[in-house]
Amino acid sequence: MAQADHVVAVEALSRRFGAAVAVDKVSFSVERGAIFGLVGPDGAGKTTIMRMLAGVMKPDGGSITVDGVDAVADPESVKTHLSYMPQRFGLYEDLTVDENIRFYADLFEIPRKLREERTLPLLQASNMIPFRRRLAGQLSGGMKQKLGLVCSLVHTPKILLLDEPTTGVDPVSRRDFWRILYDLRESGVTILISTAYLDEAERCTKLALLHQGRLGYCDTPQALKARMPGVLLVIPSTDARAARDAVSGLAGVMSVLLVGDGIHAVVDDGQRRISEIRQALETKKIPCGDIEQAVPSIEDLFVALLKQQETA
Q1: Which of 9, 57, 83, 163 could lock onto 50 through a cystine, CB 3.0 to 4.6 A?
Q2: 85 close to 161: Cβ distance less than 8 angstroms
Q3: What is the pLDDT along the chain (312 residues), one digit of tens a residue?
Q4: DSSP of 233-265, one letter per residue?
Q5: Which residue, 303, 137, 107, 119, is CA-closest to 224?
Q6: Cα-flanking dihedrals φ and ψ of residue 177, to 5°?
Q7: CA 274/CA 265 separation, integer angstroms
Q8: Residue 49 burial (CB count, 10 A)
Q9: CATH 3.30.70.980 placement within the chain
Q10: CATH among 3.40.50.360, 3.30.980.10, 3.40.50.300, 3.40.50.150 for 6-220
Q11: Which CATH superfamily is domain 228-311 in?
């Protein structure tokens, strides 16, 4: 049974495709008004979970409760409580922006006056007012995603499911997209978003870290970072790949990640390993700037936790 403050509750959710296990006994709950992130690489099970939550795919095992409704027993009733925006949202490219919005509003029997009241603020927030008469097929990828979001919101759902909505989207459109999500949260909408972009995970109020269909950790970004094993070192280098290869095999180095113009290394003892790493790089004549300890990102954490699981 879902707790009163939990709008979504998932228990031991499982799904197979033949011999392949896509989702393996995943459990989590989402508080009302949260931005909950399903985070992980391709093949982690994010889309499969989203489709089961939306009632368009039946799980092989486990339970799903959405806003008090049993989504496994009554998937059709769940659809009135939420809006689901899949990776490829079904826009009609030969219709204009306004015509697409009108089509989805008609599906939910939204009166014209109410449709305009709901649509205008969303179009303003997404900077799409000048493009209302443009064919959807002539929009950029980012604008199509923003239009898909507007169409998903025209019936003011309590819960919004977004499956990797910013994949391939330009930085400006991503910023607009997240600004809309923050506004929606302020208005009381609960948002579940899946993403492979670990920098986006920082924007969520709570995260579920997925890998190969299994849930590794589920908590707030701050609490997850507190579980970071070891100390993070930022090592700038103009030859980052060579630096990574040189540092990876050193004593006390738990994981190494290429990041921009350098590498991030997780080590057991920051002060001790800094001098050893610098010496190793100098011996191999690999350029290196000042090595400093730093606060880990979600990406650093994810890599370190996966490494920890592999060696456990």
Answers
A1: 163
A2: yes
A3: 445 578 999 999 999 999 999 999 999 999 999 999 999 988 999 999 999 999 999 999 999 999 999 999 999 998 888 999 988 778 899 999 999 999 999 988 888 888 888 888 889 888 899 999 999 999 988 889 889 988 888 888 899 999 998 887 888 888 888 888 998 899 899 999 999 888 888 899 999 999 999 998 899 999 988 888 889 999 999 999 999 999 998 999 988 999 888 999 999 999 899 999 999 999 999 999 999 999 888 888 887 777 766 665
A4: EEEE-SSHHHHHHHHHTSTTEEEEEE-SSEEEE
A5: 303
A6: -60, -50
A7: 10
A8: 29
A9: 228-311
A10: 3.40.50.300
A11: YebC, transcriptional regulation domain (3.30.70.980)
Token representation of residue 125 = 């927030």
What residue ranges of the chain are covered by domains with CATH 3.40.50.300?
A: 6-220
CB 274 within 8 A of CB 236: no
At which residue do the structure tokens 């400093």 appear? 292
